[in-house]
Fold this protein.
Amino acid sequence: MKKALALILAAAMLLALAACGSEGGSGDALEISYWIPVGEDSTYYMSYEENPAVKYLETLDFNGRKIDLSFVVPISGSELDNFNTLLMTDEYTTIMDMSYSNTTPAELYLDDYIYDLTPYVEEYMPNYMQVLADNPHLEPYVYADVDGEKRILSLYAITQEILGNFKGFLYRRDWVAKYGENPETGEPFTYGYEDPDDPNTYYDDVVFPSGGTDPVYISDWEWMFGIFEEAMADLGITDGYCTSFYFKGYGEDGTLFNAFGGGGPMWYQQQDGTVAFGGDTEDMHAYLECLNNWYEQGWLDPAFAEHTTDMAYAVDTAKVHMGKVGLWTGRRSETGALLDLGDELTSGIMVYGARAPINDIYGGAEQQGKTPYTLYQYSQIRGSVCITNQVSEEDLPTVLSFLDYLYTPEGGALVCLGLTKEQYEVTQDESYQKYGLTEGAYHTEENEDGSIRYVRDEKLLDDNNLASAMAGKRMTIGYYAPGFVPALNDSYTPLARSAMAEWDYYTNTGYIEKSITDKFTPEESDTYSKVYANVDTYMSTNIPQFIKGQLDINGEDWDDYCTMLNKYSPDDVTAVYQRVFDAMAG
């Protein structure tokens, strides 16, 4: 009896394993693990395996097989350490998002971590190869050089149309309208709603000192700060502030620093095509003079350097959402009246986007009046993944077929937009039921010219976090086909689109994208890693001290800072970047 029971239990266990999926036979689901740097808020679901797009993908066949996706998501702030730890312990995943890798694909290939996909892509990824054929100008970015031969070591997320930015400067327009005065006449501004029930009908006659209806210069910002002080005093806000910034005191993408000459605080490409380093320049000196003045005036969050776990676009979010901050770096989901909670501090809130400002106060002629050109903006390349040897060569075609599906309009829409009604009906996803999306996250319509228009559910237009959670965006791979870009098909609220237009008012030519570091040789990558680590640590330690006045920007402290910074040889990395750009141009 015991033996019979044991056989029954063993058979049941085998059936359970088959149902869960394994790599054992052609009829089983292939287990594919995927490292992604960011998951979703547990408000929506506890793990990314519960993502609606992921669950739909697992209903499809790829190369004749089902797939079983699992995800490794690091704790916020530990992305780089987690990525490297997985490599060192040989516990890395099948698919690795490369956004936090400080090792180039060429190095990973030579060290036998990842596949050279060149022999496979023509057969198993025809959609990806067609996208590349349609965009030949991307070739220098998507191919790696291995011993003089072009290789496909990474797969890149590609968008046919440039996406509108998801983040940028935001400010309390309602405070400016209510507490400000016309700089020329001294008259109070008028403001209100054409339709009290529709926040998109907001209007005012705000004019900035520079003469327009939107802030353009640093002097416009400082004028706003004076108004914010008056607003906070009137509302009894004692723990608010005018603005805050990333804990390091600077953003590598040029955030605000680009006002003081156009460039970036670390490595960036100048307008003549040459690469430069901004950490010890007169631009940096003027930038620090500005922020030190703001700190002394009480305009800058005195605790900015303490928010070490906050993302650069979500600094002290709780206080922002309580209505206690005048200007911050935020997202589309905070525009217009979306932060209105009906309480004393947020009732009637109206949030507008602001472009990167131009310095007209600090430093010399080279730091004033210059158009910012080092900015974070989307490009046609949005990210990349590598396929590791954790999958056997026999099963590699299934992985590639799965990824290739994401380069079709249908698969790309699943990642970018979410499920259609028909796809929902396949999964009966609980999240779609909970948030009233049983008609699908989007539907398509045909335009007069025959092109396809993607129309999102209105609930997703007002909540970017919900929109992300209902699609497969965290996989950061695939193809954004024509018509996907929300700013081009009116898929966001008017005030969100207006903010996006301000954030993309200037064009980035200076910020160096991650894809460029993929082109480093192993020796260059080693140089970059060592120099970057030392420079970043030194700058992020000292820059906040200059801002807070603990180090003197106009004394020996500045000279000592520049001397020490250059001992870490930032020019070595400048030369590496220049070599890559010259090679790509040639």
